[in-house]
């Protein structure tokens, strides 16, 4: 089960590493990013437990989705990402923020995945497959949004990016959780549309930031995929 929980994480990390085509980050920093995500898991768990005690929202799926999960997870991951990027000399091109954001997010998703798939009641291969299709890609895509807006704030001077780096992944994550938790007609359709929108915008954001790389050869054509 641990292998099943780890495999989609490795695929996601490898994909984002390959996409960083002009100046790859040193492996030491990537390991730090992964470890930051692992450590963030325990912080998120502790804060999440406190929020659940203070605001029990068991019968309120909308509030639970946006407050107990999305708010805690995205705010903690953003703080860890900012800490990793602060005074990091390797953060020298726009795409780097996406790389580090994904490594932190998938470090968190790795531990979360292991907990879920090895759980004696609701774990197993079915859970592993479902999370490989939805949860792990979801975490990775949320972090692409976060990294994009951080880079827009730093490299493009768009100050609103500091706010959107939290707000955009938070809203995506909140709606994602709500559509999974709520018993509403057509939830599966809306979830598929949400994931489709995430994939399309994330691919466009990655291509856009790669085009802005100062290490990109002049005149090179860049695929949108």
From TrEMBL:
<keyword id="KW-0645">Protease</keyword>
<feature type="transmembrane region" description="Helical">
    <location>
        <begin position="162"/>
        <end position="181"/>
    </location>
</feature>
<dbReference type="InterPro" id="IPR026898">
    <property type="entry name" value="PrsW"/>
</dbReference>
<feature type="transmembrane region" description="Helical">
    <location>
        <begin position="97"/>
        <end position="116"/>
    </location>
</feature>
<keyword id="KW-0472">Membrane</keyword>
<dbReference type="GO" id="GO:0005886">
    <property type="term" value="C:plasma membrane"/>
</dbReference>
<dbReference type="GO" id="GO:0006508">
    <property type="term" value="P:proteolysis"/>
</dbReference>
<feature type="transmembrane region" description="Helical">
    <location>
        <begin position="29"/>
        <end position="48"/>
    </location>
</feature>
<keyword id="KW-1003">Cell membrane</keyword>
<keyword id="KW-0812">Transmembrane</keyword>
<keyword id="KW-0378">Hydrolase</keyword>
<dbReference type="GO" id="GO:0008233">
    <property type="term" value="F:peptidase activity"/>
</dbReference>
<keyword id="KW-1133">Transmembrane helix</keyword>
<feature type="transmembrane region" description="Helical">
    <location>
        <begin position="60"/>
        <end position="85"/>
    </location>
</feature>
<feature type="transmembrane region" description="Helical">
    <location>
        <begin position="187"/>
        <end position="206"/>
    </location>
</feature>
<comment type="similarity">
    <text>Belongs to the protease PrsW family.</text>
</comment>
<dbReference type="InterPro" id="IPR023596">
    <property type="entry name" value="Peptidase_PrsW_arch/bac"/>
</dbReference>
<dbReference type="Pfam" id="PF13367">
    <property type="entry name" value="PrsW-protease"/>
</dbReference>
<protein>
    <recommendedName>
        <fullName>Protease PrsW</fullName>
    </recommendedName>
</protein>
<feature type="transmembrane region" description="Helical">
    <location>
        <begin position="128"/>
        <end position="150"/>
    </location>
</feature>
